[in-house]
Amino acid sequence: MPPRPVDPAPVRLPVTLVLAVLGGLAAWAAFPGAVTAPGLWPTAVLAVALLTVATHGARARRGAWAGLLFGFAFMFPHLSWSGTYVGLLPWSALTVACALFYGVLGACLPRLQRARRRLAPLAVATGWVALEAARARVPFEGFPWGRLAFSQADAPTLGLAALGGSPAVTFGVALAGALVASAVLALLRLPAPVGAPRAVPRLRPAVALLLAAAAVTWSGALVPRPTAAEDGTRRVAAVQGNTPAEGLEFNAERRAVLDNHAAATERLAREVAAGTQERPDLVLWPENSSDIDPYENPDAQAVIEQAARDVGVPVLVGAVLDGPGRYVSNTGLVVTPQDGIAGAREDDTRHYVKQRPAPFAEYMPYRSFFRVFSDKVDLITRDFVHGDHVGLLTMGDVRVGDVICFEVAFDDTVRQSVRAGAQFLVVQTNNATFGTSDEAVQQLAMSRLRAVESGRAVVQISTVGVSALISPDGVAHDESSLFTQDVLTGDVVLRSTQTVATRVGAAPELVLSALCVLLLVTARRGPRRGRPGGRSASARPAGDPVPA
Description:
Structural class: alpha/beta
Shape: globular
Strand content: 5-15%
Helix content: 40-55%
Oligomer: single chain
Number of strands: 12
Number of helices: 14
Radius of gyration: 26 Å
């Protein structure tokens, strides 16, 4: 009889650490950036596979160290934009905070790989979903940047977003990676039968597992991504006015940012009047396009209202408004040619206040505590308030879902606008404070996923780029360049049908996270190496089951 398959022994510690670092770098390479260009999405699958192999058969402590190294190798380059103008300390602190989550995942992976009835790949995939669910919620309301799903804007797995949102995409990527890891482990655990070529038994299970990984990866391509208009189309003009400077002082010159956006809009109006440009139905300005409060500064109000009258259609303006109280609010305002800004602040259909201001960027939690570590906390002189209503605005006869910058990373903020009736989405953002870093293209990848997830066209409009018109299938059109003045015009489709992902909401994420906990609890205990009576994998009796 051929010998029974056996589990490979845990890899040596140096190999574990090398695999973890390589896995983290593979995860980083999957995302778009200056070095990685559009992003090498298959390396996200490779990243999961490397960390899975690195932690196979390990104890929780070694798994935790592997996860931490993975997290550092991934997040340090991925979040390089966070230190563009504030230095190494905030960048490093954010990296550490994110890496800790991967340390927890690494500690859990050895046990998840001992799931019963050959459920190890499924268990590993649920672990990734649970990790990202936690990161999206704690601490300080969460920081979802770097989800596996956000690396898949050009991948077939993107289609899974229409079924279960970003958690479904992450699950697909992680399941494929875990299957690849199982293929590698199959090669290590299956000796050849007597008299047979050694390559045959080693390759059969490995090939089957690799085919399963490919099937999971390409399953998203089978999910329909309808792009047909259901409520007609509207022509939009997205105005990227540019800023006079990069960095934290982008608005140091009073009214310069506003004047840039007004000038670009007035130029559009002249082209419409001359017949060289079709009149838009809506004009969209980005976050912080008015660098001063138009309600407190009559000159700013006059500039904005004149731009709306010149173009003759509603204009969505991004402005920082004083109040309530000691706070300021990051607001989208609908300005009409007839009424200007009058009444917009009191009308929930004409203004939206960002619900999720970014911690340490728009508000400072525990200011006195963090001041001990850096006086840069006082760069934020006034905290931004949290908005209290859904981002659904009315512009003419169109219902627009407004998402402001950092919010595009959060599933529920985008979903609630679509559930409320948004016919297309706009992501207002200001990327001037991140220079020419990777932040803008990473954010665009998120907007592309949101288009598929919601079944809506998305317009991402930035002060300095990258801006783009995105169709409901996630394809970006007419991308702008960084730090240029540009006006993107095009027809966006209006849709009302809700995707499965919109209807089921957070249910897939919660179910998969609960399944992860269940599999952790019910997983078989590992061998007690080095103890009397302990049994190593190689000593398993012939009748014992072999984990997949």
